[in-house]
Amino acid sequence: MIGRLRGEIAEKGDDYLLVDVNGVGYLVHAPSNLLDRLDGGPVTLYTYMHVRETDMTLYGFADREELRMFRTLLSVPGIGPKIALAILSHVPGEALRQAVSREEVALLARVPGIGPKKARQIVFALKDKIGVEDVFVAGPPITDSDNEVLAALTALGYSLAEAQAALRGLPAEVRQQPVEDKIRLALSSLARL
């Protein structure tokens, strides 16, 4: 098994990297948030090799913790590598931990390929597996109107992690205001960054 790669980025696609390691090119699928951070040059990836009868596929991650979260997602019945990668692309590791600890099914249901029923199954299956007791949970849980704010911010091009941080940074009295006001205030806080 290939556990780690260190080499030069030869090519970058929408969901993969071609990593040149001493003249050998490895095609590695990676979360979109990792792909967005990489511009070329040297890279070190922690990898998971998925082997099937007709195919061997490498999945790469920035650190061991992200790889561990990927493997944990694979332990959920009905979750394969492509869905696990989609989850980590849309909900970074710490946000996933918090979503599970708060049972925020709606956050996971926004990931392409996952509906509300599958999101509930994931939250239930991960409740005991991802060290929820270690998660520092700050602020109130995300409501339906908060999900509308998150959807608007991500539609404007902000990552889900940025949108969540902006939403959680709003004062408590603002959290009770209409969705439009919350979006406006969240945008102004994101503009200051």
Give the key terms.
193 residues, alpha+beta, OB fold (Dihydrolipoamide Acetyltransferase, E2P), DNA polymerase, domain 1, 21% strand
Total separate domains: 3
Low-confidence stretches: 132-138
DSSP E strands, number: 5
CATH architecture descriptor of the largest domain: Orthogonal Bundle
- Here the CATH topology of the largest domain equals DNA polymerase, domain 1
By CATH, the superfamily of the largest domain comes out as 5' to 3' exonuclease, C-terminal subdomain
Summarize the main sheet: 5 strands, mixed, barrel
Whole-number radius of gyration? 18 Å
Q: What overall form do the CA principal axes indicate? A: globular
**What kind of oligomer do you see?**
single chain
| Widest β-sheet, arrangement of strands | 1-2-3-5-4
Description:
With 193 residues, the protein is of the alpha+beta class. The protein has three domains: 4-61, Nucleic acid-binding proteins (OB fold (Dihydrolipoamide Acetyltransferase, E2P)), CATH 2.40.50.140; 64-134, DNA polymerase, domain 1 (Orthogonal Bundle), CATH 1.10.150; 144-191. The protein is 45% helix and 21% strand. The chain is built from nine helices and five strands, in the order E-E-E-H-E-E-H-H-H-H-H-H-H-H. The protein has helices spanning 32-37, 64-74, 81-90, 93-101, 105-109, 116-126, 144-155, 160-168, 179-191, and strands at 4-12, 16-21, 24-29, 41-52, 55-61. The chain has a five-stranded mixed beta barrel with strand order 1-2-3-5-4. Strand 4 and strand 5 (55-61) form a beta hairpin. Helix 2 (64-74) crosses helix 3. The radius of gyration is 18 Å and the shape is globular. The protein starts with a strand and ends with a helix. The model is unreliable at 132-138 (pLDDT under 50).
